[in-house]
Structure formats: C-alpha cells, structure tokens
Amino acid sequence: MVAMHMVEQDSAPPDEAARHASARTARASALAQDYVEIIADLLAREGEARPTDIARRLGVTHATAIKTIGRLKRDGLAHSKPYRGVFLTEAGHELAQRVRARHLTVVAFLAAIGVPPQVAEADAEGIEHHVSDATLAAFERFLANA
Amino acid sequence: MVAMHMVEQDSAPPDEAARHASARTARASALAQDYVEIIADLLAREGEARPTDIARRLGVTHATAIKTIGRLKRDGLAHSKPYRGVFLTEAGHELAQRVRARHLTVVAFLAAIGVPPQVAEADAEGIEHHVSDATLAAFERFLANA
DNA sequence: AGCATTATGTAGTCCGGGCTACATTTCACG
DNA sequence: CGTGAAATGTAGCCCGGACTACATAATGCT
C-alpha cells in the first residue's frame, strides 16, 4: 500500500517504534532507580537501610521490597547479608547520585513554572525517569535564567 | 525504636508512599493510553487500525499487540471482530482525545523551553503519562505567555 | 480459480513486580 | 537471660507485557 509516500511531514514510523521502545526501557529501570534513591537516602539519614523502611517509603509490602532488592543485588547495584540491612555498590551509589540530582532538578523546574510544591513532588516521581539529558539540560538552563 | 521523633523537617513518609503508588498507577495505564492513541491515529489517517500496523508503530510483535488489544476490549476501550481491524468505544475515543491533547501540549512545551524536536517527541512519550492536570495547566500557561 | 504471501489469531514461555501466608531470626525489655 | 514482638526472609500465587512458534484466514496476482 505504500502509505508513507513522499510527505513524511511527521511521525516516521520507525522512529516512533524506537521512541516507544525507549520509553519501555525507561519504565523498566524506573523501579531500580527509585530503590537506590531511597536506599541512599536512608543510608545518609539513618545510617542504615532496612527492607521494612524501604518498603514503607515505597508503599509496598516488605516481601516485594526484599524481592526487588534481590534483583538490585543480581544487577550489581546493591549488596546485603541476611538480617543486616542493605548497602549500595559503587555502581549503586553513582546511580543514586545521578537519580537524586535529576529528581531535584525536575522538582525545582516544575516549581519554577508554577506547579504547586506537592504536585511537583508527585509528578517528578514519574517524570524524572523519562527526562533525557538534553531535556534535563533545558530544565537547568531555564532555572539558571530565572 | 521510634526513628521519626519530632523533626520531620521534610518528606513525610506516608506522602512519599502515596506518590510512588500513583506513579505505579500511571505506569500501569500508560500502555493502554499508547494503544488508544495509536489506534485513533490510524483510524483517522488510514480509516482502519490493523493489529500489525499497531504493532509496528509500537515496536512490538503482532502477538503482543493482539493480546494487549484483548485487554483493551476487556476494559471497554476497544472492540473488534476477528480479522476485521480494531475500533474504539466511546470511552476509548474520549481517552484517545485526552491523551492526544496532553501529548501535543507536552511536546510543544518541551520545544518551547529549547528541547530539540526529536528529543521532545521522544521524552514526551514517557513524560506525558506522568503529567498531572495541574502541571499540564502550568505548561499551557507557559505556552500562552511565550 | 488457485496458490503464495501476508495478516491474524492462539498457545505456551519468561520475567517483573505486586500480593498473602508462613517461617525464621533479632532484639528490647522485663 | 529468656521471651514475645518486630523485622526479615521464603514460597507460592497472580497478572501484565514481552517473546517465539505454530495454525488459520484473507488477499493479491497470475
């Protein structure tokens, strides 16, 4: 049928597929990012990150948290010994820092364009995982010129 | 041990859990939104929405698309008869419209703050599902004053 | 009209990320 | 120091969303 003749004014299909694919990838790694972010925060504030606390902050059961922590360990982001709390690997710390910085920027940016603080915080939780470096840079430029 | 004594200078845990929960919800409905958006677009441009085309636009196999379409039908967003293409219900059309409007706004907004078009399009694919009404309104305000 | 190609559908698998239920370990406190 | 509550861990279930492989329907071409 050759539906996309010469026009291609927008949405070339292959690109669209790629966009969706990368959104899926972002979704997949979002959870891990949330975990390391919370673990890092708990380590910084309390000195230890216990599964129950992590679970409570995420609003899931401890069983879910423990299982996910297992995946983090498998993926080289965290390590822990039974009944001993969770710690981040080097890679985990790096990730946590990047994620935290991104989170702060997104929240600050949303606030700067007039989104109420509570909402900014909530939306950032979802948005931050889909903000590319280029977009993050745009956010920072905006904040700088504000 | 009562770890959260009186301080609570920020991040009240229950709120955080709620934020994560709603981010999870958004993630869960993101797929359905992508589907109805694409179906609506195909219906508008081609007159029909065939599973294979939907699959190609999403970058997944047709089997995946068909299964997901089954969920859309179960959820009252679409309907179809074997070998006959996919159509949207009233609810599906409404959702598609809302999603489309949101998508356009997000893309326009990102472009307005200096994100390159390609990137804006890509990031919007993920971001749009996490933008609350309040934030969307802020985007629109920004665009209006531009 | 008949056949090859393409689209559609079905079955079965895998993994992620939730949950509940139950088992085990720590630890605080009497 | 012993014990009961809280934390931790394990097992098993469910569903979503991806895949491959195979079967069947539709269609286009000669």
The oligomeric status of these chains comes to homodimer
CATH topology of chain A: Arc Repressor Mutant, subunit A
Q: What fraction, in percent, of the residue positions of chain A are helical?
A: 55-70%
For the sheet with most strands of chain A, the description reads: 2 strands, antiparallel
The CATH homologous superfamily of chain A is termed Winged helix-like DNA-binding domain superfamily/Winged helix DNA-binding domain
Which CATH-level-2 architecture of chain A?
Orthogonal Bundle
String of helices and strands of chain A: HHHEEHHH
What distance separates the N and C termini of chain A? 51 Å
Residue-averaged pLDDT of chain A:
93
By CATH reckoning, the class of chain A would read: Mainly Alpha
* Low-pLDDT regions of chain A: 1-11
Number of domains of chain A: 1
Give the tally of β-strands of chain A.
2
What is the approximate shape of chain A?
globular
Name its key features:
4% strand; 6 helices; 2 strands; Arc Repressor Mutant, subunit A; 146 residues; DNA-binding; homodimer; two-stranded antiparallel sheet
